Amino acid sequence: MTVSVVIPTLNEERYLPFVLESIRSSRFTILQKHQIEVIIADAKSTDNTVEIASQYGVKVIDGGIPSVGRNKGASISNGEIMIFLDADVIFSDSFLENCILELINRKLDVAGAYFSVTRGSMQYIFFVLLNNIAKFVRQFTPYPVVHGDFIICRKEVFENLGGFDEKMFFGEDNDFVLRSVKSKFKYRVLKQSYITSERRIQKIGIWGITKTFLIFTFEMLRANIKNLEVQERLRKVYGENLQSKHRYTNPK
């Protein structure tokens, strides 16, 4: 069995070495390392992102906004299981295999994971706790919470759903999972956890994060999240700090 890891990037020279090192350092007791392929979907980085990826011997392709990059990566992947990561995550050496085995053993189709708190500002800890509670509670509802920095799914499910919606500026990760639930695929949050950076909080603050969360949740319940006006409201919350979570301009 092959597992494909897809990471969309734009000017990620600061963070990319850490996530690639996490992947390289992963240990496997049942799977083999050669069964893990890594694909970087890069949106025309102007720093050393592509060079760093090449040093790690991973595939590099032309990307775009996160949804486009993920879809392009998936289109050339060989894996039966897909893992989508952001460049600013790190995890333990047992994380990847544990996630893969848990997906298989629990007979899940799509899954997320929890944020891990090892250190950080009070704002960051609040952000992590808020999101973990929401992830746990809402996984049992028609409106689960997921983050694009870690999504794992079966390849046939990804193809059945048509991948990520490339027209969405914000929330394409949640939209993907919502569509999977509506299509009767099984989604749950894995027992595993990973660390994500504080950069989004540092850019727009805890109020910006909370405001985004509330707007998104309200519009999601109204089945209105794909509305262009709603997408623009979310864009304004992020303002000039869109790159803090890969929210960059589609180069197409």
Automatic annotation (TrEMBL):
Coiled-coil stretches: none
Organism from which the protein derives: Candidatus Dojkabacteria bacterium
InterPro entries assigned: Glyco_trans_2-like, Nucleotide-diphossugar_trans
Higher taxonomy: Bacteria, Candidatus Dojkabacteria
Keywords, sorted A to Z: Cell membrane, Glycosyltransferase, Membrane, Transferase
Entry-linked Gene3D superfamilies: Spore Coat Polysaccharide Biosynthesis Protein SpsA, Chain A
GO cellular component: plasma membrane
Every Glycosyltransferase 2-like domain range: 4-161
Entry GO MF terms: glycosyltransferase activity
Localization of this protein: Cell membrane
SUPFAM superfamilies found in the cross-reference section: Nucleotide-diphospho-sugar transferases
Protein name: Glycosyltransferase
Domain of life: Bacteria
